[in-house]
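Fig. S4 source data, part A: sequence.
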Amino acid sequence: MTTTPYAVIEVTPFSGQSQVMTIYRKPVTPTTKQQFTQGGERKKYDTDRYFATLKRDDDFYLIQHHVFGKVLRKYNDFFADKQPT
């Protein structure tokens, strides 16, 4: 994929073999649930779903924010004076 990743998640279980998932924003399509902001402007990206790839294979995944949003953080969350949201 040639777009810039939205996030990269690396998980290392007790077995020691890490898994790396690269997440990309999904553009809004006619099937996107929330296509517009509260102000009526068209959204650029789908806020419910992302595309993802795993480093171990060449498969392409569609993932939900409902599941992965729990581990995603905003840029400012990585600074000591900010509390996670």
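Fig. S4 source data, part B ends here. Residues 65-68 form the longest helix (4 residues).
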